[in-house]
């Protein structure tokens, strides 16, 4: 396991590891030397768009070394994403769709591991330690710079807002479900530091999405509809979009038609919505699942014209308010089964049992990919799989099976 910052070192100290201390340029050089020597058969990374990961993908591609990208599951809970080459907009599935004759051989079973609290605690300590103890050029590899006091304050504020605003949020949701069923448009807001909010966003960010969607809604949306912004729960303590949205709604004369929430089941809200607008949040898959119109502004794994309205950076909000395209149930189910079959594995990154299930599933996926290579090798030496970062260490044994520490 390669630790690129202090947060990686905190959570990776139990495994065989190497603490890399340089910046991006040195990281590229170090990785190039290792892969030129064929020190590793494969690399596993968590994500694919962070600075260190882009270097990994570029160098590994040059040396023809496979890269397995892990990420939170496209479909949750109980599933993780594990794709060779990249995920989200960099997924080999992105922009594509299954053949009409596609039938999955087997489907990963999803089990609820109840790990949201653990996820929040892990994120809080990871980012706090990374900010406090990552120094010098090494900070080039860390994608989310923030001072330790501010980071801790934001997470404490997150918990406070979760409790303080819970009653208000539930009242808003109840009103939507009882009086505006299929008459509210849902806009999930993504985490500002999300790596998908870079090139894959095609020029869009949270503030631009808020401003342009509200302007169009005021001008073109049916008078009996509402616009609902859902703040990401991990962003709740770091940003407060509600005052900005409320002020803009007041100026546009739609203050009584716009809501802001930060809790609630995305599936429930999507099912009862008139449609969803997103830059490239995985929440879009929920809209596809429930058969609701979906407008995708950027690049995403599900940005396929078979199942979504793909704006490619230039959305027609006015047309979307009047009603959007929805694929048939057969097409939608086949598409989601394809995503699940090709990109997902059972498990979870935060609960103890979930990590065990995920580790075993990832090991099997590595086995499937590398078994032919191992069979061709004449020697019986142990080969390593380098993990970058925050992912379990996998060591293919002489027999070809993979043990995960």
UniProtKB/TrEMBL annotation:
One of its GO terms (biological process) is polysaccharide biosynthetic process. Pfam families: Capsule_synth. It comes from the Bacteria. This is Capsular biosynthesis protein.
């Amino acid at each position: 396991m390669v630790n690129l910052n202090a947060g990686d070192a905190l959570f990776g100290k139990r495994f065989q590891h190497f603490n890399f201390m340089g910046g991006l340029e040195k990281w590229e050089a170090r990785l190039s030397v290792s892969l030129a020597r064929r020190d590793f058969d494969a690399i596993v990374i968590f994500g694919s768009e962070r600075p260190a990961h882009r270097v990994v993908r570029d160098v590994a591609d040059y040396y023809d070394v496979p890269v397995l990208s892990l990420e939170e599951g496209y479909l949750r809970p109980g599933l993780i994403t594990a794709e060779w080459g990249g995920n989200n907009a960099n997924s080999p599935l992105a922009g594509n769709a299954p053949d009409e004759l596609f039938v999955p051989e087997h489907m990963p079973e999803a089990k609820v591991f109840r790990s949201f609290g653990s996820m929040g605690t892990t994120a809080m300590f990871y980012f706090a330690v990374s900010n406090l103890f990552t120094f010098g050029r090494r900070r080039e590899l860390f994608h989310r710079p923030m001072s330790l006091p501010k980071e801790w304050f934001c997470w404490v504020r997150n918990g406070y807002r979760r409790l303080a605003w819970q009653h208000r949020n539930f009242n808003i949701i109840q009103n939507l479900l009882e009086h505006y069923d299929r008459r509210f448009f849902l806009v999930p807001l993504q985490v500002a530091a999300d790596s998908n909010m870079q090139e894959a966003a095609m020029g869009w960010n949270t503030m631009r999405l808020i401003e342009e969607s509200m302007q169009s809604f005021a001008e073109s949306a049916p008078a009996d509809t509402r616009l609902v912004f859902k703040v990401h729960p991990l962003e709740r303590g770091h940003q407060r979009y509600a005052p900005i949205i409320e002020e803009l709604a007041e100026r546009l004369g739609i203050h009584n038609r716009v809501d802001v929430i930060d809790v609630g089941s995305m599936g429930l809200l999507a099912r009862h919505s008139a449609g969803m607008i997103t830059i490239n949040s995985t929440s879009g898959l929920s809209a596809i699942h429930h058969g609701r119109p979906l407008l995708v502004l950027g690049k995403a794994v599900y940005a396929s014209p078979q199942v979504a309205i793909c704006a490619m950076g230039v959305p027609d909000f006015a047309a979307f308010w009047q009603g959007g395209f929805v694929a048939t149930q057969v097409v939608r189910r086949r598409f989601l089964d394809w995503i699940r079959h090709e990109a997902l594995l059972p498990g979870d990154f935060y609960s103890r049992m979930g990590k065990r299930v995920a580790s075993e599933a990832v090991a099997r996926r590595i086995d499937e990919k590398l078994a032919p290579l191992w069979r061709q090798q004449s020697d019986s030496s142990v080969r390593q799989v380098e993990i970058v970062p925050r992912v379990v260490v996998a060591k293919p044994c002489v027999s070809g099976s993979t043990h995960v520490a």
